[in-house]
Write a structure and sequence with these properties.
heterodimer; A: 342 residues; mainly alpha; MetI-like fold; 76% helix; B: alpha/beta; Rossmann fold; six-stranded mixed β-sheet; 21 helices; 19 strands; 24% strand; globular
Chain lengths: 342, 548
């Protein structure tokens, strides 16, 4: 039975919408049941009870929850996520400013992850139970077990002491005359504007936080790649190619690598959740000013609209990342492209 | 030049595992002359595959050749440098692998495998070739293995071809560079009998056309008769007997060879065992059974099947993969629900937790949990029928006696047991809660012939002692001839023939039954002549197409 690709994509999108609705309902309720009155927090301890009541009415907090939600959802569909109580600006404006910083950091981390972990996994599998393998396995285990904020702080300290010129906070040096660009991604905007000093400076700023953020994923993906390579090495098809004299490097880098990349890619999709979670910590340490730090402030301030929006965006990231992973895997593995007959 | 093409002389190979060395080949010596067909026969652990790997040069890292020589066309290949040795692969000799599915990397197209093998062999031989030109050459080779639509085959992924087609591609892979010696490791064993038969015919044709020598590695004596001029019998790393094929099969000298031949179930002749028909009441009645997997339009796995099993009989359900025989068994076991139709079992209702039916699966290596001892495995069904611990102990002792295993085996894990012993444990587990009907799903397909014989004898004895009824599912018709009292043949979800076993074999009505019987590799010429005749037209109508 062949499923039409369009049907598959539409089913996926339908699921995607359902997940977003469920997520929004959940976060909407959660944000409102945690203790603390948002109106009181916004106005501060000096405000009197009438002022607080007035703001509550203005925010619609006195109405039943379902009504509040439907009102919110209706506005959200037309692109209005409400006002932030803290910044006093529309939440969408805040997000537009902060999201690109986080996306840039996360994407560079993902690139780091694959660039380091896949080769390390392949090499440790090849030198199985030899010195290189032991060292690689120790390092990947370290990456998995040590929390990323510890890496972040340690690297920051080391850089501050020994690499005094190396930037340890922020996205860009203040001295650079840079007004920003259309996408908000420094690497993209800098390249478009031909300002390679900006690109280089942004890269330097990215190096430490991106590396700290990718450590856990590097450890995990190295381990998965290694075990996947080892498992596939024993398969008959490797023996087939060997008995016809196809060189080992071709077998490893062409045949085994492609087959063994399916497992790490799947893990990558799941790993994305912890990547976003860790970004909240890393952004604080490196004063990144991304949407994770924005989320953290809004949670502490009980800025309802901002919290809801941040969680929705994080959910969106996770879903999109997994959609991409699914598509890539189905390109790699022909068996997933056609549904089996039984 | 009287030098043989391949000569293996006093070859000793040992495997090192966890610091211990185990010798797997002892002074193995044999020769293959140019154009000669030699079969290397033996059971599991005989060293036949290790011998092939030693010749090709793909022994695992923990294997060591401690002494001996392998000469190919007068050249000592063990003394060659690594690149020179590599250069022989695929060009001087090449290998036909056993399992056509696992022998291809599932995420690469068939053509990629073929092209890489050809490209690197070309490179070693100093030939420069373009991709397009290689594609033409590959298509030509694929035509020789009767895959006319080479373009389609090359663009297909392994999972998109049938088992027979993949096996043909594997043969094509071996033929890419005109080798002088073809080494075939149990080709077609993983396929249906009819497909295996076609594959063996193809190998025979190619070997005689191209004047290649053939080293056939197999455990099947019937295959040997079909494809070999000379036979080398191996047992536990030793060569026990060598001789012309006809001599070995009709007049074996070594006791081991005699026992091996004895264990092969005969298709015709005086050694055939005919079971009496049961005249007792029907115990299982199946009417109008249909099973459709999936929706719109779905896969129609069983079509209007009617079956009646009489109490005490051994009923054989024969068919090839995809014929629906296992689906029928699953429905009887209530592991799966019928789309329509009824299964009635006429027996008094069993007690709590007990079932009237139990099943013994094909591969005891995978049907037993590797992390549980025999005792744990056996106690599970006993606990579920509410037996106390003393009663369980007593029943387990009884069960091990029934399947003729020593009591000490209760403490063993599956990996400590041989294949036959594992299957005995699986049988004991099936019998634990005293079922009335035992479903045997290819119970001996994963076992060596000599072990198969003892397991079958045990099953026959158990049926007599315990008054059981068997439903045996198999594609091995020669085994069914000797084990079943009645037999039904399934094709694409339908029963095409049913009757008392001796009658079906003496005079098969349906062309598909004739084709199935005709495809069984038999040991003697006398049996070969007794096989039913199938016309080419019937063949194309009822057999799965393996060509393209």
């Amino acid at each position: 039975m062949q499923q039409h690709p369009l049907v598959a994509i539409l089913t996926r999108l339908g699921m995607f919408v359902l997940v977003m609705i469920a997520l929004s309902i959940m976060i909407f309720i959660l944000a409102r049941v945690v203790p603390g009155d948002p109106a009181r927090m916004a106005l501060g301890p000096a405000a009197n009870q009438e002022q607080v009541e007035a703001l509550r009415q203005q925010m619609g907090l006195d109405r039943p929850l379902p009504v509040q939600y439907l009102d919110y959802a209706g506005k959200a569909l037309s692109g209005d996520l409400g006002m932030s109580l803290v910044s006093q600006r529309p939440v969408t404006t805040d997000l537009a400013q902060t999201v690109p910083a986080t996306v840039e950091l996360v994407l560079v981390s993902v690139i780091f992850m694959f660039a380091v972990a896949i080769p390390l996994g392949v090499v440790t599998a090849h030198y199985r139970n030899r010195t290189f393998d032991y060292v690689g396995r120790f390092l990947s285990l370290t990456g998995v077990t040590i929390p990323s904020f510890l890496f972040a702080i340690t690297m920051q300290l080391v850089a501050a002491r020994y690499l005094t010129d190396w930037p340890i906070i922020g996205r860009l040096d203040h001295g650079l005359a840079w007004q920003g660009g259309p996408t908000g991604f420094l690497l993209v905007d800098g390249t478009l504007a031909g300002r390679f000093d900006v690109v280089l400076n942004a890269l330097k700023h990215l190096a430490l936080p991106a590396f700290a953020l990718s450590m856990a994923g590097i450890g995990q993906i190295t381990r998965i790649t290694r075990s996947s390579m080892l498992e596939n090495q024993r398969k008959d098809h490797v023996l087939t190619l060997k008995s016809f004299g196809v060189p080992e490097r071709v077998i490893i880098f062409r045949y085994l690598l492609k087959l063994s990349s399916i497992a790490p890619l799947t893990i990558m999709g799941l790993e994305f959740a912890s990547l976003i979670g860790n970004a909240f910590v890393i952004e604080m340490i490196f004063a990144w000013g991304g949407f994770a730090s924005y989320g953290l402030t809004s949670i502490l301030q009980k800025d309802l609209n901002a919290v809801t929006a941040v969680v929705l965006v994080a959910g969106l990231f996770f879903i999109i990342a997994n959609l991409i992973v699914d598509v890539v895997i189905s390109i790699i593995d022909p068996r997933l492209r056609r549904k089996e007959e039984r | 030049m009287d030098e043989p093409l391949l000569s293996v002389d006093k070859l000793n190979v040992s495997f090192a595992t966890y610091g211990r060395s185990r010798q797997v080949l002892r002074d193995v010596s044999f020769e293959v002359a140019a154009g000669e067909r030699v079969a290397l026969i033996g059971e599991t652990g005989s060293g036949k595959s290790v011998t092939a790997k030693a010749i090709i040069g793909t022994l695992p890292n923990n294997a060591a050749i401690s002494s001996g020589t392998i000469r190919f066309a007068g050249q000592d290949i063990l003394a060659l440098s690594k690149p020179d040795r590599e250069a022989l692969k695929g060009t001087a000799f090449s290998l036909i692998m056993q399992d056509p599915l696992s022998s291809f990397n599932p995420v690469f197209k068939i053509g990629t495998h073929l092209d890489d093998v050809m490209r690197f062999a070309d490179k070693r031989n100093g030939i420069s070739s373009s991709k397009a030109e290689r594609r033409t050459r590959i298509a030509a080779v694929l035509r020789r293995v009767q895959l006319a639509d080479g373009e389609r085959v090359m663009d297909a992924y392994p999972s998109e071809l049938s088992g027979g087609m993949r096996q043909r591609v594997l043969i094509g892979l071996a033929l890419l560079h005109q080798p002088k010696l073809l080494i075939a490791d149990e080709p077609g064993t993983a396929l249906d009998v009819t497909t295996q038969d076609e594959i063996l015919n193809l190998i025979n044709t190619l070997v005689s056309q191209e004047n290649m020598a053939l080293l056939m590695i197999t455990h099947n004596l019937g295959v040997v008769r079909k494809v070999a001029d000379r036979v080398v019998v191996m047992h536990h790393g030793d060569i026990v007997e060598t001789g012309a094929c006809a001599d070995i099969l009709s007049n074996p000298k070594a006791a081991y060879t005699q026992a091996l031949l004895e264990a092969v179930p005969p298709l015709y002749g005086p050694r055939v065992i005919t079971l009496p028909q049961s005249d007792r009441a029907p115990i299982v009645t199946i009417r109008g059974l249909n099973k459709i997997y999936g929706k719109r339009p779905g896969f129609h796995a069983i079509r209007d099947v009617d079956l009646t099993l009489r109490e005490g009989e051994i009923f054989g359900l024969a068919g090839e993969s995809g014929s629906g025989k296992t689906s029928v068994a699953r429905i009887i076991m209530e592991l799966s629900r019928a789309t329509s139709g009824t299964v009635a079992i006429d027996a008094p209702a069993p007690g709590r937790g007990r079932r009237l039916t139990q099943i013994v699966y094909q591969n005891p290596g995978t049907s037993l949990n590797p992390k549980r001892t025999v005792k744990q495995t056996l106690s599970l069904p006993l606990t579920s029928i509410g037996m106390g611990s003393d009663a369980r102990e007593a029943r387990m002792t009884e069960l091990l006696d029934l399947v003729r295993l020593p009591q000490s085996y209760l403490a063993k894990y599956p990996h400590e047991l041989s294949g036959g012993q594992k299957q005995r444990v699986a049988i004991a587990r099936a019998l634990a809660a005293e079922p009335k009907i035992l479903i045997l799903d290819e119970p001996t397909a994963a076992l060596d012939v000599s072990v198969q014989k003892t397991v079958i004898e045990l099953l026959v004895q158990l049926r007599q002692d315990l008054g059981l009824t068997y439903l045996m599912i198999s594609h091995d018709l020669s085994l069914m001839r000797n084990f079943c009292s009645r037999i039904a043949v399934m094709l694409r979800g339908e029963i095409v023939e049913e009757g008392a076993t001796p009658e079906v074999f003496a005079d098969p009505k349906h062309p598909y039954t004739r084709a199935l019987i005709a495809a069984i590799p038999v040991v003697t010429d006398a049996e070969e002549q007794l096989k039913p005749v199938v016309t080419e037209e019937e063949r194309t109508r009822f057999l799965v197409k393996t060509t393209a």
